[in-house]
Amino acid sequence: MKILFFVHEGALSGANAALADFMGLLFGKGYELYLITPRLGELTQRVAPYTKEVFEIYYYGWTVGPNRQNLKKNQLRHRLRNLYAVHQIGSVIKKIQPDYCVTNTITIDVGALAAKKKGVKHIWFVHEFGESDHGFSFVCGMDKARKRMLSLSYKVAVNSLAVLKTFPASVKLKVLYNYVTPPQIEIAPLQKSDQMRFLLLGQIATSKNQSEAIRALAEARKRGYDFHLSVYGKVVNEDYYRELLHLVKELGMERFVSFGGYSNDVFSLFGTHHALIMCSRNEAFGRVTLESLLAGRPVIGADSGGTSEMITNGQNGLLYRAGEAGDLCQRMIDLSNEYPMFDSRAISEAARKKFNRGNTLKQLEEIFK
């Protein structure tokens, strides 16, 4: 079976990292895989062992950001470029004759349009809510865009039940959970210590809401708790990063909040931290949440989106009221006080049982029936 994938960027973003894992599973089952990307990059390097051929075709997304001032100015240019991209993609489809075309994000539609034009079944992999997590929408609005995605697709695979509920009811909808390769060696459990070390992983962007964790930490220290927060992630919003640095200084937390930049070895970080904090305002799935659980570390997460599906209070972490730094502070204190009750091995085993290679492969094979 031949599958042609479309991505929105060449970087190894969360959605693209998930796709790389999916492609590895499908390649192992004998699928013939192709990729179209607007830019070569980390993703194309990662999936090189799995792809028979990669095509670089430039196109624009069909989403709009919160600032629509330049929308009309750029709309015609984008539309013309995308019309030509659809033509170019059509030539690739004619050449390789795929059984399926797959778009890996809701931010682009050129693959779906080209597949429809050539009469090839199209599948949409959805890794995001859109407006409520990343702050973008569509000219036609989110609701109409989701209906259009369903109409253009043979199936739509979403990464959580929370995302599924945002779509109109349809037999085309399927759940496809992310799969993350667990650490090759067991990460030793940590004992409660005088200084509890919390970890925050994710791009430095407003949607990840790192400021909430910084405010919660400052409040906890004000109450006498010796907590430290390590923030790791690629800076994608320089203005927000400067705001975070200013907030740390304003709250007098320079000694207790550290920024480590991007890390490609997150499992080593869990070895020196007691727990992960996930404070994204509306995370669709939470890849780093799964990585923390696989490592046996509890997660304090905002009770919203897919995070609510992954965390069970008192078993593998604690949920707090999203948007409330005070409630996050209290959960950090609760976890510190109750830390011995969180069984590292049990947390890891439960995550491996639910989110594993076999289960994800079954979901993929069901989608590509």
Question: Termini separation (Å)?
Answer: 10 Å
The helix content, as a percent range, equals 40-55%
Radius of gyration: 21 Å
Beta percentage is: 15-25%
Major beta sheet, specifics? 7 strands, parallel
Number of helices: 14
The general outline is globular
Strand order of the largest sheet: 3-2-1-5-6-8-9
Structural class: alpha/beta
Residue-averaged pLDDT: 93
Order of helices and strands: EHEHEEHEHEEHEHEEHEHEHEHEHEHHH
Q: In total, how many beta strands?
A: 15
In the predicted model, the low-confidence regions spanning at least 5 consecutive residues are none
Structural features, described:
With 369 residues, the chain is of the alpha/beta class. The chain has helices at residues 14-28, 42-46, 71-96, 110-118, 142-152, 161-164, 210-222, 238-250, 266-270, 287-294, 307-310, 325-338, 344-354, 357-367, and strands at residues 2-6, 32-37, 51-56, 63-64, 100-103, 121-126, 137-138, 155-158, 173-175, 196-201, 227-232, 257-261, 275-278, 299-302, 317-320. The strands form three sheets. The chain has a seven-stranded parallel β-sheet with strand order 3-2-1-5-6-8-9, sandwiched between helices. A six-stranded parallel β-sheet has the order 12-11-10-13-14-15, sandwiched between helices. The chain has a two-stranded antiparallel ribbon with strand order 4-7. The longest helix is centred in the N-terminal third of the chain and has 26 residues, at 71-96.
